[in-house]
Protein backbone atom coordinates (compact mmCIF):
# COMPACT_ATOMS: atom_id res chain seq x y z
CA UNK A 1 0.00 0.00 0.00
CA UNK A 2 1.34 3.43 -1.00
CA UNK A 3 2.22 5.63 1.95
CA UNK A 4 0.95 9.21 2.06
CA UNK A 5 2.34 12.47 3.34
CA UNK A 6 1.37 16.12 3.15
CA UNK A 7 3.51 19.24 2.81
CA UNK A 8 2.09 22.69 3.58
CA UNK A 9 3.69 25.86 2.28
CA UNK A 10 2.37 29.40 2.50
CA UNK A 11 4.01 32.70 1.52
CA UNK A 12 3.22 34.24 4.89
CA UNK A 13 5.38 31.69 6.70
CA UNK A 14 9.07 32.11 5.93
CA UNK A 15 12.14 30.83 7.75
CA UNK A 16 14.63 33.35 6.41
CA UNK A 17 16.39 34.66 3.34
CA UNK A 18 18.77 32.26 1.58
CA UNK A 19 22.31 33.58 1.93
CA UNK A 20 24.23 32.65 -1.22
CA UNK A 21 27.19 31.72 0.98
CA UNK A 22 25.23 28.63 1.97
CA UNK A 23 26.55 26.99 -1.22
CA UNK A 24 30.21 26.99 -0.26
CA UNK A 25 32.93 24.38 -0.53
CA UNK A 26 36.41 23.74 0.81
CA UNK A 27 39.94 23.37 -0.56
CA UNK A 28 42.50 22.06 1.92
CA UNK A 29 46.10 21.10 1.33
CA UNK A 30 45.13 17.45 1.70
CA UNK A 31 45.71 14.62 -0.75
CA UNK A 32 44.97 15.79 -4.30
CA UNK A 33 42.61 18.66 -3.50
CA UNK A 34 45.18 21.26 -4.57
CA UNK A 35 47.89 19.50 -6.59
CA UNK A 36 46.34 17.64 -9.57
CA UNK A 37 43.01 18.91 -8.23
CA UNK A 38 42.47 22.61 -8.84
CA UNK A 39 46.12 23.08 -9.87
CA UNK A 40 48.09 21.08 -12.43
CA UNK A 41 50.46 23.02 -14.69
CA UNK A 42 51.08 21.08 -17.85
CA UNK A 43 47.55 19.68 -17.99
CA UNK A 44 45.96 20.23 -21.37
CA UNK A 45 43.33 22.51 -19.81
CA UNK A 46 45.70 24.44 -17.52
CA UNK A 47 45.48 28.21 -17.72
CA UNK A 48 48.46 30.55 -17.72
CA UNK A 49 48.65 30.25 -13.93
CA UNK A 50 48.67 26.45 -13.93
CA UNK A 51 45.10 25.94 -12.71
CA UNK A 52 42.92 23.34 -14.41
CA UNK A 53 40.24 24.96 -16.53
CA UNK A 54 38.12 21.78 -16.58
CA UNK A 55 37.93 21.81 -12.77
CA UNK A 56 37.17 25.53 -12.74
CA UNK A 57 34.33 25.00 -15.22
CA UNK A 58 32.84 22.23 -13.08
CA UNK A 59 33.19 24.43 -10.00
CA UNK A 60 31.11 27.09 -11.72
CA UNK A 61 28.54 24.50 -12.80
CA UNK A 62 28.39 23.20 -9.23
CA UNK A 63 27.33 26.69 -8.16
CA UNK A 64 29.97 27.15 -5.47
CA UNK A 65 29.91 30.65 -3.96
CA UNK A 66 32.50 30.42 -1.16
CA UNK A 67 35.67 28.34 -0.80
CA UNK A 68 37.31 27.78 2.58
CA UNK A 69 41.13 27.65 2.63
CA UNK A 70 43.79 26.38 3.52
CA UNK A 71 42.29 24.01 6.10
CA UNK A 72 41.10 22.06 7.91
CA UNK A 73 43.61 20.24 10.06
CA UNK A 74 46.35 21.45 7.72
CA UNK A 75 46.08 25.04 8.93
CA UNK A 76 47.16 24.21 12.50
CA UNK A 77 50.75 23.58 11.39
CA UNK A 78 50.87 26.18 8.61
CA UNK A 79 53.25 29.13 8.37
CA UNK A 80 51.56 31.29 5.76
CA UNK A 81 54.58 33.59 5.34
CA UNK A 82 56.60 30.66 3.95
CA UNK A 83 54.14 30.31 1.03
CA UNK A 84 54.20 33.84 -0.38
CA UNK A 85 56.74 35.48 -2.64
CA UNK A 86 58.82 33.79 -5.37
CA UNK A 87 57.98 30.08 -5.61
CA UNK A 88 61.63 29.16 -6.12
CA UNK A 89 62.45 30.59 -2.70
CA UNK A 90 59.81 28.57 -0.83
CA UNK A 91 60.81 25.51 1.18
CA UNK A 92 58.82 22.27 1.40
CA UNK A 93 57.73 21.19 4.88
CA UNK A 94 56.09 18.23 6.55
CA UNK A 95 52.37 18.75 7.11
CA UNK A 96 51.81 17.01 10.43
CA UNK A 97 48.05 16.73 9.97
CA UNK A 98 48.09 14.48 6.92
CA UNK A 99 51.76 13.35 6.98
CA UNK A 100 52.50 14.77 3.57
CA UNK A 101 55.45 16.81 2.34
CA UNK A 102 53.87 20.09 1.23
CA UNK A 103 55.78 21.67 -1.68
CA UNK A 104 54.48 25.20 -0.91
CA UNK A 105 53.90 25.91 -4.60
CA UNK A 106 50.38 27.18 -3.92
CA UNK A 107 49.91 29.71 -1.15
CA UNK A 108 47.79 32.68 -0.18
CA UNK A 109 48.28 34.76 -3.34
CA UNK A 110 47.82 31.90 -5.77
CA UNK A 111 44.63 30.74 -4.05
CA UNK A 112 43.09 34.18 -3.64
CA UNK A 113 43.78 35.10 -7.25
CA UNK A 114 42.27 31.79 -8.40
CA UNK A 115 39.16 32.52 -6.31
CA UNK A 116 38.95 36.02 -7.76
CA UNK A 117 39.20 34.76 -11.34
CA UNK A 118 36.53 32.12 -10.70
CA UNK A 119 34.16 34.48 -8.95
CA UNK A 120 34.06 32.68 -5.60
CA UNK A 121 34.42 34.33 -2.19
CA UNK A 122 37.42 33.17 -0.16
CA UNK A 123 37.00 32.05 3.43
CA UNK A 124 40.42 32.12 5.07
CA UNK A 125 41.48 30.24 8.19
CA UNK A 126 44.26 31.31 10.55
CA UNK A 127 46.56 29.01 12.51
CA UNK A 128 45.64 29.01 16.20
CA UNK A 129 47.24 25.62 16.78
CA UNK A 130 50.98 26.24 16.61
CA UNK A 131 50.76 30.01 16.13
CA UNK A 132 48.65 32.84 17.45
CA UNK A 133 47.66 36.51 17.61
CA UNK A 134 50.52 38.18 15.72
CA UNK A 135 50.52 35.77 12.76
CA UNK A 136 46.73 35.99 12.44
CA UNK A 137 46.69 39.78 12.43
CA UNK A 138 49.59 39.87 9.98
CA UNK A 139 47.71 37.64 7.54
CA UNK A 140 44.68 39.96 7.62
CA UNK A 141 47.01 42.88 6.97
CA UNK A 142 48.68 41.01 4.10
CA UNK A 143 45.32 40.23 2.50
CA UNK A 144 43.35 43.41 3.22
CA UNK A 145 45.80 46.16 4.14
CA UNK A 146 46.46 49.33 2.17
CA UNK A 147 49.96 50.36 1.07
CA UNK A 148 52.22 51.78 3.73
CA UNK A 149 52.35 48.99 6.29
CA UNK A 150 54.75 46.07 6.58
CA UNK A 151 52.59 43.17 5.49
CA UNK A 152 50.55 45.08 2.91
CA UNK A 153 53.80 46.29 1.37
CA UNK A 154 55.04 42.71 1.24
CA UNK A 155 51.91 41.75 -0.72
CA UNK A 156 52.56 44.62 -3.10
CA UNK A 157 56.20 43.57 -3.48
CA UNK A 158 54.93 40.10 -4.34
CA UNK A 159 52.97 41.53 -7.26
CA UNK A 160 49.53 42.29 -5.86
CA UNK A 161 48.83 45.99 -5.31
CA UNK A 162 45.07 45.91 -4.70
CA UNK A 163 43.94 44.45 -1.35
CA UNK A 164 42.03 41.16 -1.64
CA UNK A 165 39.27 42.28 0.71
CA UNK A 166 38.74 38.90 2.36
CA UNK A 167 35.64 39.11 4.55
CA UNK A 168 35.23 35.66 6.14
CA UNK A 169 37.88 34.43 8.61
CA UNK A 170 38.00 31.21 10.64
CA UNK A 171 39.68 31.40 14.03
CA UNK A 172 41.51 28.09 13.70
CA UNK A 173 40.02 24.68 13.00
CA UNK A 174 38.50 21.98 15.23
CA UNK A 175 40.50 23.08 18.23
CA UNK A 176 38.48 20.75 20.49
CA UNK A 177 39.87 17.69 18.67
CA UNK A 178 42.77 15.77 20.24
CA UNK A 179 43.97 15.05 16.69
CA UNK A 180 44.52 18.77 16.09
CA UNK A 181 48.09 20.03 16.20
CA UNK A 182 48.03 22.51 19.08
CA UNK A 183 44.78 21.13 20.53
CA UNK A 184 43.43 23.24 23.40
CA UNK A 185 40.70 22.99 25.97
CA UNK A 186 37.73 25.36 25.72
CA UNK A 187 39.14 27.97 28.10
CA UNK A 188 42.56 28.03 26.41
CA UNK A 189 41.04 28.27 22.97
CA UNK A 190 38.35 30.78 23.93
CA UNK A 191 40.94 33.18 25.35
CA UNK A 192 43.24 32.81 22.35
CA UNK A 193 40.40 33.18 19.83
CA UNK A 194 39.22 36.34 21.58
CA UNK A 195 42.67 37.92 21.49
CA UNK A 196 43.37 36.87 17.90
CA UNK A 197 39.96 38.04 16.74
CA UNK A 198 40.37 41.36 18.54
CA UNK A 199 43.71 41.97 16.81
CA UNK A 200 42.35 40.90 13.42
CA UNK A 201 39.43 43.31 13.71
CA UNK A 202 41.75 46.12 14.72
CA UNK A 203 43.49 45.58 11.39
CA UNK A 204 40.20 45.42 9.47
CA UNK A 205 36.97 46.10 11.40
CA UNK A 206 34.83 44.98 8.44
CA UNK A 207 35.74 41.28 8.62
CA UNK A 208 33.43 38.51 9.88
CA UNK A 209 34.85 35.99 12.33
CA UNK A 210 33.99 32.30 12.72
CA UNK A 211 34.90 30.76 16.08
CA UNK A 212 35.41 27.00 16.37
CA UNK A 213 32.48 25.01 17.63
CA UNK A 214 32.57 21.29 18.33
CA UNK A 215 34.09 19.03 15.70
CA UNK A 216 30.95 16.89 15.90
CA UNK A 217 27.96 16.29 18.14
CA UNK A 218 29.66 13.10 19.35
CA UNK A 219 32.51 14.98 21.07
CA UNK A 220 32.50 14.46 24.85
CA UNK A 221 32.74 18.23 25.36
CA UNK A 222 29.87 19.10 22.97
CA UNK A 223 27.62 21.84 24.31
CA UNK A 224 29.94 22.75 27.14
CA UNK A 225 32.59 23.66 24.53
CA UNK A 226 30.22 26.03 22.71
CA UNK A 227 29.11 27.79 25.87
CA UNK A 228 32.64 28.18 27.26
CA UNK A 229 34.17 29.42 24.00
CA UNK A 230 31.35 31.87 23.40
CA UNK A 231 31.63 33.17 26.95
CA UNK A 232 34.98 34.63 25.82
CA UNK A 233 34.11 35.55 22.22
CA UNK A 234 30.37 36.29 22.03
CA UNK A 235 30.65 40.05 21.52
CA UNK A 236 33.49 39.68 19.00
CA UNK A 237 32.55 36.87 16.60
CA UNK A 238 29.77 36.60 14.05
CA UNK A 239 29.46 32.84 13.54
CA UNK A 240 30.28 29.59 15.30
CA UNK A 241 31.40 26.65 13.18
CA UNK A 242 29.75 23.26 12.90
CA UNK A 243 31.25 20.14 11.30
CA UNK A 244 29.44 16.87 10.58
CA UNK A 245 29.98 13.85 8.36
CA UNK A 246 27.59 10.98 7.73
CA UNK A 247 28.01 7.46 6.37
CA UNK A 248 26.29 4.10 6.08
CA UNK A 249 27.73 1.81 8.77
CA UNK A 250 27.18 -1.94 8.86
CA UNK A 251 24.50 -1.89 6.20
CA UNK A 252 22.26 0.38 8.32
CA UNK A 253 20.61 2.01 5.33
CA UNK A 254 17.69 3.44 7.30
CA UNK A 255 19.91 5.42 9.66
CA UNK A 256 22.00 6.69 6.77
CA UNK A 257 18.89 7.92 4.96
CA UNK A 258 17.86 9.64 8.20
CA UNK A 259 21.09 11.64 8.45
CA UNK A 260 19.28 14.91 7.71
CA UNK A 261 17.36 14.54 10.97
CA UNK A 262 20.66 14.16 12.86
CA UNK A 263 21.95 17.35 11.21
CA UNK A 264 18.72 19.14 12.11
CA UNK A 265 19.07 18.18 15.77
CA UNK A 266 22.73 19.21 15.78
CA UNK A 267 21.89 22.68 14.45
CA UNK A 268 19.09 23.14 16.98
CA UNK A 269 21.40 22.21 19.87
CA UNK A 270 24.20 24.55 18.79
CA UNK A 271 21.70 27.38 18.33
CA UNK A 272 20.31 26.67 21.81
CA UNK A 273 23.82 26.73 23.30
CA UNK A 274 24.66 30.02 21.59
CA UNK A 275 21.37 31.62 22.56
CA UNK A 276 21.84 30.54 26.17
CA UNK A 277 25.10 32.50 26.29
CA UNK A 278 23.38 35.49 24.71
CA UNK A 279 20.53 35.29 27.23
CA UNK A 280 22.94 35.25 30.17
CA UNK A 281 24.64 38.33 28.74
CA UNK A 282 21.26 40.02 28.12
CA UNK A 283 22.41 40.49 24.54
CA UNK A 284 20.21 41.16 21.52
CA UNK A 285 22.93 39.82 19.23
CA UNK A 286 22.34 36.45 17.57
CA UNK A 287 25.30 34.24 16.74
CA UNK A 288 24.76 32.41 13.46
CA UNK A 289 26.19 29.13 12.15
CA UNK A 290 29.00 28.55 9.70
CA UNK A 291 28.47 24.89 8.82
CA UNK A 292 31.83 24.89 7.13
CA UNK A 293 32.45 21.15 6.91
CA UNK A 294 29.69 18.74 5.96
CA UNK A 295 29.36 15.78 3.62
CA UNK A 296 29.08 12.04 3.34
CA UNK A 297 32.45 10.65 4.44
CA UNK A 298 33.16 6.97 5.09
CA UNK A 299 35.34 7.88 8.04
CA UNK A 300 34.68 4.75 10.10
CA UNK A 301 34.80 2.20 7.32
CA UNK A 302 37.28 3.44 4.69
CA UNK A 303 39.73 5.84 6.35
CA UNK A 304 42.61 4.27 8.34
CA UNK A 305 43.18 7.37 10.50
CA UNK A 306 45.79 10.10 10.26
CA UNK A 307 48.21 8.32 12.57
CA UNK A 308 48.31 5.31 10.23
CA UNK A 309 49.21 7.29 7.12
CA UNK A 310 52.78 6.85 5.88
CA UNK A 311 54.81 9.97 5.23
CA UNK A 312 54.15 10.73 1.55
CA UNK A 313 55.06 13.17 -1.20
CA UNK A 314 53.65 14.24 -4.54
CA UNK A 315 49.95 14.68 -3.75
CA UNK A 316 49.05 11.20 -2.48
CA UNK A 317 45.57 9.75 -2.95
CA UNK A 318 44.01 10.26 0.48
CA UNK A 319 40.29 10.06 1.35
CA UNK A 320 39.14 9.76 -2.27
CA UNK A 321 35.73 8.34 -1.43
CA UNK A 322 33.70 7.22 -4.43
CA UNK A 323 30.00 7.96 -4.19
CA UNK A 324 26.79 6.14 -5.10
CA UNK A 325 23.26 7.20 -5.90
CA UNK A 326 22.39 6.50 -2.25
CA UNK A 327 25.10 8.92 -1.12
CA UNK A 328 23.70 11.54 -3.49
CA UNK A 329 20.19 11.19 -2.04
CA UNK A 330 21.59 11.74 1.45
CA UNK A 331 23.62 14.78 0.33
CA UNK A 332 20.43 16.21 -1.17
CA UNK A 333 18.56 15.59 2.09
CA UNK A 334 21.32 17.34 4.08
CA UNK A 335 20.94 20.35 1.79
CA UNK A 336 17.22 20.47 2.61
CA UNK A 337 18.17 20.68 6.28
CA UNK A 338 20.46 23.65 5.62
CA UNK A 339 17.73 25.44 3.64
CA UNK A 340 15.26 24.88 6.47
CA UNK A 341 17.64 26.66 8.86
CA UNK A 342 18.21 29.69 6.63
CA UNK A 343 17.53 32.00 9.57
CA UNK A 344 20.55 30.73 11.50
CA UNK A 345 22.85 29.13 8.88
CA UNK A 346 24.08 31.77 6.42
CA UNK A 347 27.38 30.04 5.58
CA UNK A 348 28.19 26.41 4.76
CA UNK A 349 30.95 24.51 3.01
CA UNK A 350 30.71 21.08 1.42
CA UNK A 351 33.99 19.36 2.27
CA UNK A 352 35.67 19.18 -0.11
CA UNK A 353 35.64 20.54 -3.66
CA UNK A 354 37.81 18.15 -5.66
CA UNK A 355 39.19 14.61 -5.18
CA UNK A 356 39.00 14.52 -1.36
CA UNK A 357 35.44 13.36 -0.43
CA UNK A 358 34.40 15.59 -3.29
CA UNK A 359 31.72 16.08 -5.95
CA UNK A 360 34.46 16.60 -8.57
CA UNK A 361 37.16 14.04 -9.36
CA UNK A 362 40.22 14.24 -11.58
CA UNK A 363 43.02 12.12 -12.95
CA UNK A 364 46.51 13.61 -13.33
CA UNK A 365 47.00 14.38 -17.02
CA UNK A 366 43.48 13.05 -17.49
CA UNK A 367 39.81 13.95 -17.29
CA UNK A 368 37.72 15.63 -14.63
CA UNK A 369 34.24 14.28 -13.91
CA UNK A 370 31.18 14.66 -11.70
CA UNK A 371 30.48 12.31 -8.83
CA UNK A 372 26.80 11.47 -8.14
CA UNK A 373 26.78 13.95 -5.23
CA UNK A 374 27.46 16.76 -7.70
CA UNK A 375 23.90 16.72 -9.00
CA UNK A 376 21.79 17.56 -5.89
CA UNK A 377 24.24 20.24 -4.80
CA UNK A 378 24.37 21.93 -8.20
CA UNK A 379 20.60 21.78 -8.64
CA UNK A 380 19.89 23.20 -5.19
CA UNK A 381 22.43 25.99 -5.65
CA UNK A 382 20.80 26.88 -8.96
CA UNK A 383 17.15 26.73 -7.90
CA UNK A 384 17.09 27.94 -4.28
CA UNK A 385 16.46 31.68 -4.44
CA UNK A 386 14.87 34.28 -2.21
CA UNK A 387 13.35 33.09 1.06
CA UNK A 388 13.13 29.62 2.54
CA UNK A 389 9.48 28.94 3.27
CA UNK A 390 8.58 27.47 6.65
CA UNK A 391 7.20 24.20 5.30
CA UNK A 392 5.15 21.90 7.50
CA UNK A 393 5.40 18.18 6.81
CA UNK A 394 3.03 15.52 8.03
CA UNK A 395 4.41 12.09 7.28
CA UNK A 396 4.78 8.64 8.79
CA UNK A 397 8.01 7.90 10.59
CA UNK A 398 10.63 5.23 10.11
CA UNK A 399 12.59 3.75 13.00
CA UNK A 400 16.35 3.93 12.80
CA UNK A 401 19.01 2.37 15.01
CA UNK A 402 21.08 5.56 15.26
CA UNK A 403 18.51 8.35 15.40
CA UNK A 404 15.28 6.77 16.61
CA UNK A 405 12.13 7.72 14.71
CA UNK A 406 12.69 10.04 11.77
CA UNK A 407 10.23 11.42 9.18
CA UNK A 408 9.75 9.25 6.10
CA UNK A 409 9.48 12.39 3.95
CA UNK A 410 11.36 15.67 4.24
CA UNK A 411 10.78 18.86 2.30
CA UNK A 412 12.05 22.39 1.74
CA UNK A 413 10.84 25.19 -0.50
CA UNK A 414 12.10 28.60 -1.60
CA UNK A 415 10.32 31.54 -3.23
CA UNK A 416 11.77 34.80 -4.50
CA UNK A 417 8.70 36.73 -3.32
CA UNK A 418 7.69 38.24 -6.65
CA UNK A 419 3.95 38.88 -6.68
CA UNK A 420 3.62 37.80 -10.31
CA UNK A 421 5.40 34.75 -11.71
CA UNK A 422 7.73 34.55 -8.74
CA UNK A 423 10.32 31.78 -8.94
CA UNK A 424 9.63 28.87 -6.63
CA UNK A 425 11.52 25.64 -5.93
CA UNK A 426 10.33 22.61 -3.99
CA UNK A 427 12.70 19.93 -2.71
CA UNK A 428 11.42 16.55 -1.48
CA UNK A 429 13.06 13.40 -0.14
CA UNK A 430 11.48 9.99 0.24
CA UNK A 431 13.55 8.02 2.75
CA UNK A 432 11.53 4.82 2.40
CA UNK A 433 11.87 1.85 0.05
CA UNK A 434 8.32 2.35 -1.28
CA UNK A 435 6.69 5.12 -3.33
CA UNK A 436 5.07 7.89 -1.30
CA UNK A 437 2.16 10.01 -2.47
CA UNK A 438 2.62 13.60 -1.30
CA UNK A 439 -0.19 16.13 -1.12
CA UNK A 440 1.49 19.49 -1.59
CA UNK A 441 -0.86 22.07 -0.10
CA UNK A 442 -0.26 25.72 -1.03
CA UNK A 443 -3.38 27.71 -0.13
CA UNK A 444 -1.61 31.06 -0.30
CA UNK A 445 0.09 30.44 -3.63
CA UNK A 446 -1.11 29.80 -7.15
CA UNK A 447 1.61 27.30 -7.95
CA UNK A 448 2.76 26.02 -11.32
CA UNK A 449 5.52 23.42 -11.11
CA UNK A 450 7.57 22.60 -14.15
CA UNK A 451 10.52 20.26 -14.45
CA UNK A 452 13.47 19.55 -12.26
CA UNK A 453 15.76 16.71 -11.26
CA UNK A 454 15.31 13.39 -9.52
CA UNK A 455 18.05 11.28 -7.96
CA UNK A 456 17.31 7.74 -6.79
CA UNK A 457 19.40 5.50 -4.57
CA UNK A 458 21.17 2.45 -5.96
CA UNK A 459 22.11 -0.88 -4.40
CA UNK A 460 25.50 -1.30 -6.01
CA UNK A 461 28.89 -0.68 -4.36
CA UNK A 462 30.69 2.41 -5.56
CA UNK A 463 33.52 1.74 -8.01
CA UNK A 464 36.35 4.15 -8.76
CA UNK A 465 36.45 5.94 -12.08
CA UNK A 466 34.43 8.11 -14.43
CA UNK A 467 32.70 5.06 -15.89
CA UNK A 468 30.99 4.33 -12.58
CA UNK A 469 29.90 7.96 -12.19
CA UNK A 470 28.51 7.94 -15.72
CA UNK A 471 26.58 4.72 -15.02
CA UNK A 472 25.02 6.14 -11.85
CA UNK A 473 24.13 9.33 -13.69
CA UNK A 474 22.50 7.40 -16.53
CA UNK A 475 20.49 5.09 -14.29
CA UNK A 476 19.75 7.17 -11.18
CA UNK A 477 19.82 10.85 -12.16
CA UNK A 478 16.80 11.89 -14.20
CA UNK A 479 16.03 15.29 -15.67
CA UNK A 480 12.30 15.91 -15.28
CA UNK A 481 10.79 17.79 -18.19
CA UNK A 482 7.58 18.17 -16.22
CA UNK A 483 6.65 17.79 -12.58
CA UNK A 484 5.46 14.26 -11.65
CA UNK A 485 1.99 15.55 -10.79
CA UNK A 486 -0.66 12.86 -10.35
CA UNK A 487 -3.52 15.22 -9.44
CA UNK A 488 -4.09 18.91 -8.90
CA UNK A 489 -6.77 21.23 -7.60
CA UNK A 490 -6.96 24.81 -6.45
CA UNK A 491 -4.35 25.14 -3.72
CA UNK A 492 -3.29 21.49 -3.89
CA UNK A 493 -0.83 19.51 -6.01
CA UNK A 494 -0.38 15.77 -5.57
CA UNK A 495 2.94 14.14 -6.41
CA UNK A 496 4.30 10.63 -6.22
CA UNK A 497 7.88 10.28 -5.00
CA UNK A 498 10.03 7.37 -6.11
CA UNK A 499 11.49 5.07 -3.42
CA UNK A 500 14.64 6.38 -1.73
CA UNK A 501 14.74 9.50 -3.83
CA UNK A 502 15.59 13.19 -3.82
CA UNK A 503 13.47 15.40 -6.08
CA UNK A 504 13.84 19.07 -6.95
CA UNK A 505 11.11 20.91 -8.86
CA UNK A 506 11.04 24.49 -10.06
CA UNK A 507 8.23 26.67 -11.28
CA UNK A 508 6.39 29.90 -10.74
CA UNK A 509 4.06 31.12 -8.01
CA UNK A 510 1.98 34.17 -7.24
CA UNK A 511 0.04 35.02 -4.14
CA UNK A 512 -3.47 33.61 -4.37
Brief digest:
The protein is built from 11 helices and 26 strands. The chain has helices spanning 53-62, 108-118, 133-144, 150-157, 186-203, 224-233, 253-257, 259-280, 325-339, 374-383, 466-476; strands spanning 3-8, 14-17, 24-26, 66-69, 93-95, 100-102, 121-126, 168-171, 208-211, 239-246, 288-296, 347-350, 360-362, 368-370, 387-389, 392-394, 397-400, 404-407, 409-415, 422-430, 436-441, 445-456, 477-480, 485-489, 492-497, 501-511.
Secondary structure blueprint with pairings:
Blueprint: E1 3-8, E2 14-17, E3 24-26, H1 53-62, E4 66-69, E5 93-95, E6 100-102, H2 108-118, E7 121-126, H3 133-144, H4 150-157, E8 168-171, H5 186-203, E9 208-211, H6 224-233, E10 239-246, H7 253-257, H8 259-280, E11 288-296, H9 325-339, E12 347-350, E13 360-362, E14 368-370, H10 374-383, E15 387-389, E16 392-394, E17 397-400, E18 404-407, E19 409-415, E20 422-430, E21 436-441, E22 445-456, H11 466-476, E23 477-480, E24 485-489, E25 492-497, E26 501-511
Parallel strand pairs: 1-21, 3-4, 3-12, 4-7, 7-8, 8-9, 9-10, 10-11, 11-12
Antiparallel strand pairs: 1-16, 2-15, 5-6, 13-14, 15-19, 17-18, 19-20, 20-26, 21-25, 22-23, 22-26, 24-25
Amino acid sequence: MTQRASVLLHPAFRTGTIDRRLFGSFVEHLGRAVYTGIYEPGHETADEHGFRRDVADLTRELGVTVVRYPGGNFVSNYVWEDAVGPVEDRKPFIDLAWRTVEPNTIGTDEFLQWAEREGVEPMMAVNLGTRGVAAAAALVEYCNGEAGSRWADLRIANGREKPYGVTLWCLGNEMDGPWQIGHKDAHEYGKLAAEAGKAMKLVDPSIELVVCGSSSMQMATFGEWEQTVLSYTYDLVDHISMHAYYEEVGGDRASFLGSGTAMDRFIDRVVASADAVGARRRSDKRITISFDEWNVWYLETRFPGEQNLPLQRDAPRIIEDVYSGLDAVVVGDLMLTLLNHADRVPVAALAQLVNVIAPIMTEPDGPAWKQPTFHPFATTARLARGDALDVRVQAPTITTARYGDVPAVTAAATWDGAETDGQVAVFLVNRTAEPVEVELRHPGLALSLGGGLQVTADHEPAVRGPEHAAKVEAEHVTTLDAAPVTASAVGTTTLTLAPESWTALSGTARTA
